[in-house]
Specification:
49% of the residues lie in helices and 13% in strands. The protein has 285 residues and is of the alpha/beta class. It has a single domain, classed as Rossmann fold (3-Layer(aba) Sandwich), CATH 3.40.50. Helix 2 runs parallel beside helix 3 and helix 5 runs parallel beside helix 6. Bound molecules: NADP nicotinamide-adenine-dinucleotide phosphate.
Length: 285
């Protein structure tokens, strides 16, 4: 069967992996934000499964180093396109560059993202808007550029990176949390629309992830990124690919985070806001 031409049912159990195993070999993936962190881990895992890769980000050096390593080690094609996804025309330029390379992704991994921690009124507005442009606008644009092609082929998949911050408003992380709520809502709606065309859509929601630059770049308190509070990049990749195999729309990474998501659904919003405001204000000190 064509592994990226899925017709599975939502909510299939984890065992669907063994019933409907995916074969990524010889297929192609476009990974945004592959120059570090989770994107780097996705690139490694997909190359190990035999996928050709187009790696994108702004930092050309680590992208080229990773592409060279994976091409040699895994014997796959690995291309690099440098692009700043905060620029409004960047998704179109990325697709044009991929077309020029005759690189057509079967899997689009919308992973590039950033956040800003701090009181909204006191953090640079430009950085907040950049967060929206990369996390929401570029992700929607790339989905909009590739989904019609996948639908026409009746084959393909889009994997978006959300966050547990999507499950409730987060004071002092207001724009980032709202941007991830957009990613989750948008992805789940696309999952429902695209399934009938043989295209899968998954959003994966981790809490703090180790060996990434996200926390430091966002100005998050280092105490959030200590062992015991984080999950590994590999756990994020595994949860995402399992959900893709099983055609689940959403994957929340880690038992504690799944429990947290359930708890949030039960607590009145006003109480949530009061508690999270206190917790995040203290953490930010
Ligand atoms: N780490 C966590 O705790 C955590 C938790 C939940 C969700 N996430 C999500 O996971 C995703 C990956 O982040 P990460 O944790 O791996 O952090 P990271 O190490 O900082 O990686 C972020 C990636 O996004 C790219 N990126 C950022 N701004 C960009 C721009 N304007 N144009 C193009 N690429 C850009 C970066 O590449 P360049 O700098 O080379 O451009 C980098 O490759 C993000 O969407 C983030 O929201 C992370």
């Amino acid at each position: 069967m064509n592994p990226l031409n899925y017709r599975g049912k939502a909510g299939d159990s984890h065992q669907c992996n063994t019933v409907n195993p995916l074969n990524y070999r010889g297929k192609a993936a476009l990974v945004t934000g592959a120059s570090s962190g989770i994107g780097d881990a996705f690139a490694r895992a997909l190359a190990a499964r035999g996928m050709d890769l187009l790696l994108s980000g702004r930092s050309e050096e680590p992208l080229r180093a990773l592409a060279g390593e994976l091409a040699t080690r895994q014997n796959v094609r690995a291309e690099v396109v440098r692009v700043n996804l905060a620029e409004p025309d960047a998704p179109g330029r990325l697709q044009a560059a991929a077309d020029e390379l005759r690189f057509e992704p079967d899997l689009l991994v919308n992973n590039a993202g950033l956040g800003v921690q701090g009181p909204f009124a006191e953090t640079p507005l430009e950085r907040q808007l950049e967060t929206l442009r990369v996390n929401c606008q570029a992700l929607a644009a790339l989905s909009g550029l590739y989904l019609p092609r996948m639908r026409a082929r009746r084959s393909g998949a889009i994997l978006n990176i959300g966050s547990t911050a999507a499950f409730q408003p987060v004071p002092y992380l207001a724009v980032y949390a709202a941007s991830t709520a957009f990613v989750v809502s948008f992805s789940e709606a696309l999952w429902a629309e695209a399934g009938r065309y043989g295209v899968r859509v998954v959003v994966v929601c981790p809490g703090p992830v180790a060996e990434t630059r996200f926390g430091e770049r966002a100005g998050m308190p280092p105490s959030l990124y200590v062992a015991g509070r984080t999950v590994s990049r590999e756990a994020v990749v595994t949860a995402a690919l399992d959900a893709l195999d099983c055609n689940r729309p959403t994957a929340t990474v880690g038992f504690q985070n799944r429990l947290g998501a359930l708890a949030v659904a039960l607590v009145p919003r006003r109480l949530q806001l009061t508690v999270t405001e206190r917790v995040f204000r203290r953490m930010g000190r």
